[in-house]
Amino acid sequence: MKNDKIRWIAGAVALLVLPLVLQYFGNAWVRIADLALLYVMLALGLNIVVGYAGLLDLGYVAFYAVGAYMFGLLASPHLTENFAWFAQHFPDGMHLSLWAVIPLALLLAATTGVLLGIPVLKLRGDYLAIVTLGFGEIIRIFMNNLDHPVNLTNGPKGLGQIDSVKVFGLDLGRRLELFGYDINSVTLYYYLFLALVLATIVICYRLQDSRIGRAWMAIREDEIAAKAMGINTRNMKLLAFGMGASFGGVAGAMFGAFQGFVSPESFSLMESVMIVAMVVLGGLGHIPGVILGAVLLSALPEVLRYVAGPLQSMTDGRLDASILRQLLIALAMIIVMLLRPRGLWPSPEHGKSLARKS
After folding, report:
1. How far apart are CA 349 and CA 336, in angstroms?
2. Which value, to the nearest 10 degrees, does the dihedral of the CA atoms of residues 47, 355, 128, 71 take?
3. What pLDDT, on the 0 to 100 scale, is given for residue 355?
4. How far apart are CA 281 and CA 328, in angstroms?
């Protein structure tokens, strides 16, 4: 028990000190840590749908886009400049606080998730994957084309001049001087994202051990048996879509505030595939494994910059560095899946697998 407490305290101290150490190597490394935390939140949200309920969702990035664009529209001058009614009632724009942004993003993304879940309730496996993939692409295409005849999303130009987040009067977009020590904006965002990730982890653990979580796992193992036992599979699936989407919406809103700019290119199909890969690579249904997979796959492309550059120079520039990085990431994923088919940190076996052992 004492050793566990020491490990928890050491881990907490390491997470708090990490951005301050990374600052010495440049803000780019702190930025990588910030984006890794956002991907952890996204992967944990998708884990509810894929890992707990067993519903393969390849359009998860759509909820990320919904949250980002919601915050972008409410925290930028775009609506004031393009809509007379909005300019009349909000001449200075809407500058919502963090405590209003998070619930709004959560509710909007959850509603979108439920709307996606309703028409696909009877689909399973590959068919469900294809439909959700199409839904993700539809959202991206809408964002890309809703600039005419009414300019709602500004199309491929994206939304700029997005407000930074303010917490208790502290503007996270500006550098903070504390006891003579400069804390950069990216470091302040790190602590906000870390708090949101910790809240997400607590919620996921509570869901996992609840009756709802056990119902999701029963549906994942055998939907017909779960239905025969009295579980309302329809409502449970809709709840899984809504809960998973809500985390994606919050992550999207934070991404919009962090970047200060959102455009359709940030929400491509490849993003959805990478988030699914994080969940599968780490370990389906296992929260520590999902976190590990998200951190590795979000940080690996940046780390491989230092490998791809020298390899490109060795071939006199014949190999493109970005393509080489993608090749190395794909090879790493293939090797991991061959050696660890259940993921790097798989979940304890459930249901049918336990029956086989006994």
Report:
1. 19
2. -10
3. 46
4. 15
Q: Report the alpha-carbon distance of residue 79 to residue 262 in Å, rounded.
A: 15
- The encoded tokens of residue 237 equal 């699936």
Determine the Cα–Cα distance for residues 5 and 343; give it in Å rounded to an integer. 27
**Rounded alpha-carbon distances, angstroms, from residue 40 to 117, 167, 197:** 23, 22, 7
For residue 246, which amino acid is it? S
Report helix angle 61-74 to 269-282, nearest 10: 120
Compute the residue count for the chain: 358
Instruction: Write the DSSP string, 237-268.
Output: HHHHHHHHHHHHHHHHHHHHHHHS-B-GGGG-
Q: How deeply is 332 buried, as exposed, middle or buried, from its count of CB atoms within 10 A (0-12, 13-18, 19+)?
A: middle
Q: Tell me how far apart the alpha carbons of residues 316 and 190 are, in angstroms, rounded to a whole number.
A: 38
Q: Using one digit for the tens of pLDDT, what is the confidence trace for 209-244? A: 899 999 999 999 899 999 999 999 999 999 999 999
Mean pLDDT of 94-115: 89
Say what the pLDDT of residue 28 is: 87
